[in-house]
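Re: the multi-chain job from yesterday

Posting the exact lines I submitted so nobody has to dig through the queue logs.
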Amino acid sequence: MTNAPFRSGIGNFVADGLRELAKGPPGYWVWVIFLLGVIAFGGMHYLDQLERGLAVTHMSNQVSWGFYIANFTFLVGVAAAAVMLVIPAYIFHRKDIKDVVLMGDTMAIAAVTMAILFVVVDLGRPDRIWHMLPFVGRFNFPQSLLAWDVIVLNGYLLLNFGISAYILYNHYRGVEASERRYFPIVLLAILWAFAIHTVTAFLYAAASGRAYWHTALLAPRFIASAFASGPAIMAIGLQIIRHVTAYPIPQSVINHLALVTTFALQITLFFLGAELFTEFYDETEHSLPARYLFFGLGERAALVPWIWTAVGLLAAATVILMIHPLRHNPVTMNLALVMTIVGIWIEKGMGFVIPGFIPTPLGEVFEYAPSFTEVAVSLGILAIGLLIFTLLAKMAVPIQCRFLEAGRDGRACAPAGGPSRQATAAEPEAEGAKA
Amino acid sequence: MSSKPPADDSALQARRRFLKGLAAGTAVAATPAWGGASLGDVFADFFQKHYQRMTAEEVAAALERIERKAKRRYDVAIECKNTPPQPGVVYGYAINISKCRGYRDCVHACVEENNLSRDTQYIRVVEMEEGFEGLHHANHYYDHELVPAPGKYYLPMQCMQCDNPPCVKACPIEATWQEPDGIVVVDYDWCFGCRYCMTACPYQARHFNWGNPVLKPDEINPDTHYLGNRPRPKGVVEKCHFCIQRTREGRQPACQEACPTGARIFGNLLDPHSEIRYVLEHKAVFRLKEDLGTEPKFWYFRDN
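And the result, structure tokens for all chains:
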């Protein structure tokens, strides 16, 4: 691999990429087959849902959105957070980050694909999805915020895919991609990342009849929590890539992501506090959803343990990450990152979507918990996302390695072989960055 | 329910009869596939245009398909009409809270008239404590031997047919809109079931077909309207449509007819001599959640 000559031609690029997918260590195959198994499991439950309708979920006329839309909301944030690598790479010219920014884009592609799939499985009539198409369908733009969301999510997917493919193809040919050519697109993608999460927040904030969502703080809150959970996921993902491939991922990039997570967590907790003050200082009828979430309404309190778990995890993660020795210790840092991911997933997933429906606009208190089908289909979508990321990374990593090796002094990819050897090759790097 | 001929032009009716003949011919020629539907029907259903974009012929063909589908699914001969809005008519509703005694006769008449799935109700009557107003005090599931219960009053709610409907704004594919007579309707053949309208509605007036509607053949009201009470497919949203199949023919909605106390007053807001106009001009009327600016065409009042 290390001495393979650079090639060119889109056909070769694609063919070499596909060839790359067909070879790998046993661990790669176990992982891919495992993911395919989970996808088949989820797919079977989705077929059952198609057959019997959304009655197989636990959603109701009272709580008409559930686990699917909760996951959608979380993943849009993860997708948007790729800018936390893109901005330092292209605006502040951090070389170390620029070398791995493609992995951030790849993660955004996987996350936004999952987000779109979560909306598709939530549709009662997916066979009519063509009703959105231009000319043959009808699109309620710019009136409907959901129409906006369809545009920004698909646009974001295309932008990320286009930029990554362009840069990667140039690296495949052994040349640096012309930054002058793609920089305007990168700028657009940065703005677009903020747009996808802002539009998703507006989707909820537009519902004037649901006081819990109808707040101007929602979009800032969404962005803040996205920049906590997204970089946390990227930091973990990059460490895994460093372990199982030869890709040289400097520890400085991981540290950067952990620092971004720290700041974003602090802002998230501040926003949460501001929200809670407004809800509870002088409690009105509009505070009932928040009361349901944090304390329960009478007997009905299904989300109470979840939200306190989330608050605890986020507060603890913030403290750990704010203490420098703990943030630089891989064990405590990764612990805090996982706590952040789980905490935000609860807080802006179920913890945000479900209380919007409880109580209903007519004051009915009707609870919701996902059905087995909803969990199974969601796991299937998660596996699709992981598979997309795995396969894209599998294609991109050798190209990146070869390019970095040819062009840079000091850092080089370890020779292809077992994962353990590569992991050790990356280790001194980590030590060096820490010192 | 007698099936009166719809008030629209008879030329369309003739065309429909002609197309019916054609369809009968194709039905014989085509092999039944896809659960008994002819392949032609399956394709035509799939590619059916938005209601507002169909030509008169296409609407007529769609109505024929709806009738055939009901025959196939329930073995019931229904008539599906497309009665247009009457000029100079905008419907409104007013409820006399003093007269409502919580019998829920309106709820059940609505279910029967509108071919509702037996697990769905467009009208919700809640029981309120005298002296309280906030809906979070409401009892949605009151079930006494005798109503009215002492110290309680009753509040029936259904789609308010807002003049500024947030649900219409929310729909990403324009599957729901306000008709010229003020009724907010759903094209059940266009809706793709995202349920964003349900989150937008502040009156909990929209209902989703989570599965296939629970409806027995002998319960079916054969007098139906495309935008109204025709049998619905699964996976789409539906709502109260002021009994469009009746009201556009000058009749009263089923809930109004069923009410034994005369608490319900329905009529044309544009007719200065209508009863509803009298109520609006002479009673202290109010609307639910007026602060949201949805402009409901659904009022409440009390006797003095």
